[in-house]
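Minutes, project huddle
Topic: does the predicted pose make sense with zinc ion bound?
PN asked that the exact inputs be recorded in the minutes so nobody has to dig through chat later. Recorded below.
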Amino acid sequence: MNKLFKNSRIIKLFILLLITILLLGCGIALFYFISLRKENLRDKYYFESLSDKKQIGRLVSVDKAEGNIYYKYNYPLIGDDKIDNEIKNIVDDSVNIINKKYSLDGNVEYYYFGKYETYIGMGYLLSIILYDDFVTDDLKLLENSYESYIFDLNTGDMLSNEDIFNDDYIDVLQGFVKNQKLDKNFKYYVKNDQLVLLDYDVTIPLMKIKDILKIDLSRRSDYTNKNSEPVYDVVNKEMQLVESTVLYDEDKIVDKYERKIEKDTVVNVYAQSDTGWSIILLDNKALYVETRYLKVPDIISDVQETPNGKIVYAITDLNIRKDKSVKSEIVGELKRGESVIRIEDDGSWSKVLYNNQEAYVSSSYLSLVEVKIRNVKLNIPPQGNIDPNKPMVALSFDDGPNPISTPMILDVLEKYNVRATFFDLGNLMEKYPLVVKREAELGEVGTHTYSHKNMTKLSVDEINNDLKLSRNAFKKILGYDPILIRAPYGSVNATFRALADMPIIGWDVDSLDWKYLNKDLTLDEIDKYGNLDGRIILMHSIHVSTAEAVEILVPDLLDRGYQIVTVSELAQYKGYILETGTVYNNFK
Ligand code: ZN
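Predicted holo structure (tokens), as shared on screen:
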């Protein structure tokens, strides 16, 4: 008995010892794991400086959209006010240089990624993650047609594809790609200490690796551990989503979000914090959204209220459904231009009153602005010598006029006696009126808005104002109003469609000329589309490489039996009657 007791005590001690060893092991493993993780984070979010391996560079991406007009840049917040200000000043300086040099209108978007370790330094990468994870059709459209240019942040010089390639940077780049688990084949080059990645997804970011900031990693960790409670002030006001985003059930960016919320949705903001978060109340639940996604709602002066709700107009023929699903039963149809009373809008679906019954219609195609439809009389030249039975294709050139490359394109059109459509920016038309006049002589001119802002991000007044400025430019230079419009980035919503008062011309052949800046690659891209009959090719008149491509493209298309026509001619000869507010991507 005694022996047995002794034995069991020894066993107990032994087990205790085992547990202690196990715990110790775990502790050591955890310690290593944490320190390894720290190392990974360091690699993941920062580059070593290339000139002095001890310093840590920062990532900055500048995406400059097509047309020398619109650009955005991302930079991380480190969480330390001093460093954050330093970054901000440096980036602001760079942007000011670019702004001056290219007379941009200062339409800058700042992306503050961070305050959370996972996003520190991820400016560029987060934008990719955002688009992949939270992609909506709107965003996709925007992203697909997104156009970027690359600058040297020090000098403001626009960089070209011919810039040099430097082996010293390969290691850094490969480390970067590996750590980000991105298996794409990056194209890249280096200029003035900057690593420039080309072709990732659809943007062309600039990565600056210069050792501007001497960030001490321990300070960064300190910040992460700092657990300051944000202060919320009750505001209780209506606000509107600037773009589609997601709602979280806590005030930080985490992997799992509660639900998506669509652009333009008006929400009741209950409170806002000093840390950039807003609490909104939805379905009796408090959810969090980043304050930067909210704006004061559009006030539409002639919006019609009824006791049951606002009157909304269909921008296209719409099915009315029994429930919030495209699979649900169709109970009726709302014709383009017809109105209905909207009781509720969750961003995706609008609850409407139809035959005194509640029903649902997709919110994306409902406008608070009355939709006035009219047929448009197209601008067809009298010397038109088109055979409607033969294949035809429309070349369209955006973002001009440009005093160098646009005349090169016009020379080609003149030489081969073919026409094309130029979607010009009002502010550039005013700068280069003679180029515009020649465009109108040799083809047709449509508007690409006055200042190349994303129309879906503007209020009703701002859209109207931009359209007015464009019309003024047309009146002044050409003596008539624009007949066709192409939205910047191809990005349209119901409000823009209702206000445009022109047929909205898209494209269905994207030459990607802005991206390649190379005539052969641009031509190869167009070749991928095969039969071009009835199609609209998108190009940009602001690149010399595009003009060079056109020099080859035009005779080649003629050899292949295509008639090269304007967008108006294509529509006319293919038997279309164009209506205002409708988007046309081809005329097959
Ligand atoms: Zn454009």
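Observations noted during the meeting:
- The first helix runs from residue 2 to 45.
- Confidence is low (pLDDT under 50) at residues 33-79, 101-227.
No decisions taken; revisit at the next huddle.
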